[in-house]
């Protein structure tokens, strides 16, 4: 099974597309995960996809920005976003879907809207386990998974750890069900008081890292048992305010780019999909400015 890694656009928005995609390519990623605003123009997106083709990279569109509290407006805005990205070639879509305060039936309507998109476009939509969205907590998502057999997830367990203020050891059934329905991973590491440890490379955060690795191991093992040809992972450590910063200056205490590349390299080695990539030195220089 081929592992495919995607670099988040989140945190690199200050770069021009050529600099960003050049750095992504040099670092050894297979593509990018592109958080697309609801008001993006079709022309802009087509231009980005032309750039991606030039660099031999893919893109996973990410939906994040539908915040309307009025459900009817929310539904229409989400439908418009799906229509916006419909012509774009993509291996899958990651969707931060719905709201935590919408009813089950309302959020299910949004899931079903995504299913209709898949049926008409051929691109699967996977729903991210994210705070503020319908899948904001392990126990709540468990109910959705039980009642909607076709619901598939992007697993970002860092949010659930934060919401539950625990490593979810007391929710094994919810975690097992989520793992069985995961089709994409956001490889960020959370801890009980936050959705992102300051640095996954240092000893004091290894308990959190090992907890997440245990979940990811099970997802990868399941996909291999299913004889999947590929599986996708986005290392998704974020910038400020996810990244801890120094007081007054807001200078990050470590490099988002280097942490995400570390996660990719570590997971490639762990899952024996080691690839010789171009040195990331020049890529890091581009990203860090």
What can be said about this structure in brief?
With 289 residues, the protein is α/β, with parallel strands linked by helices.
Describe this structure in words.
By secondary structure, this protein is an alpha/beta fold. It contains 10 helices and 8 strands. It has helices at residues 17-27, 42-55, 71-85, 104-121, 138-147, 157-164, 172-180, 206-225, 256-270, 281-288; strands spanning 2-8, 31-35, 58-63, 93-95, 125-128, 153-155, 182-186, 230-234. Strands 1-2-3-4-5-6-7-8 form an 8-stranded parallel beta barrel, surrounded by 6 helices. Helix 3 (71-85) packs parallel to helix 4 and helix 5 crosses helix 7. It is globular. The mean pLDDT is 95.
Count of individual beta strands: 8
Biggest pleated sheet: 8 strands, parallel, barrel
Looking across the biggest beta sheet, what order are the strands in? 1-2-3-4-5-6-7-8
Summed up, the helix count is 10
Arithmetic mean pLDDT: 95
Basic shape: globular
Distance between the amino and carboxyl termini: 36 Å
Q: SSE string, helix = H, strand = E? A: EHEHEHEHEHEHHEHEHH
Uncertain parts: none
Structural class: alpha/beta
Rg, Å, rounded: 18 Å
How much strand content do the residues show?
5-15%
Helix percentage range: 40-55%
């Amino acid at each position: 099974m081929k592992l495919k890694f995607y670099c988040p656009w989140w945190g690199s928005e200050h770069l021009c597309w050529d600099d960003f995609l050049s750095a992504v390519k040099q670092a050894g990623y297979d593509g990018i995960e592109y958080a697309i605003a609801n008001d993006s123009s079709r022309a802009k997106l087509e231009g980005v996809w032309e750039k991606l083709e030039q660099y031999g990279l893919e893109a996973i569109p990410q939906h994040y920005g539908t915040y309307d509290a009025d459900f009817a407006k929310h539904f229409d805005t989400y439908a418009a976003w799906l229509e916006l990205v419909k012509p774009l070639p993509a291996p899958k879509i990651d969707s931060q879907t719905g709201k935590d305060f919408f009813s089950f039936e309302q959020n299910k309507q949004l899931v079903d809207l995504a299913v209709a998109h898949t049926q008409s476009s051929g691109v699967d939509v996977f729903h991210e386990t994210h705070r503020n969205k319908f899948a904001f907590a392990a126990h709540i998502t468990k109910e959705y998974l039980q009642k909607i057999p076709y619901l598939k997830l992007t697993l970002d367990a860092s949010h659930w750890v934060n919401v539950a203020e625990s490593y979810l050891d007391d929710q094994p059934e919810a975690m097992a069900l989520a793992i069985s329905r995961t089709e994409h991973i956001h490889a960020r590491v959370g801890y009980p008081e936050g959705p992102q440890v300051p640095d996954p490379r240092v000893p004091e955060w290894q308990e959190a890292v090992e907890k997440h690795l245990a979940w990811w191991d099970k997802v990868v093992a399941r996909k291999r048992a299913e004889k999947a040809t590929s599986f996708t992972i986005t290392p998704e450590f974020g910038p400020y305010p996810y990244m801890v910063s120094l007081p007054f200056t807001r200078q990050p205490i470590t490099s988002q780019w280097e942490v995400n590349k570390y996660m990719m390299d570590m997971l490639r080695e762990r899952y024996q999909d080691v690839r010789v990539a171009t040195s990331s030195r020049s890529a890091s220089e581009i990203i860090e400015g």
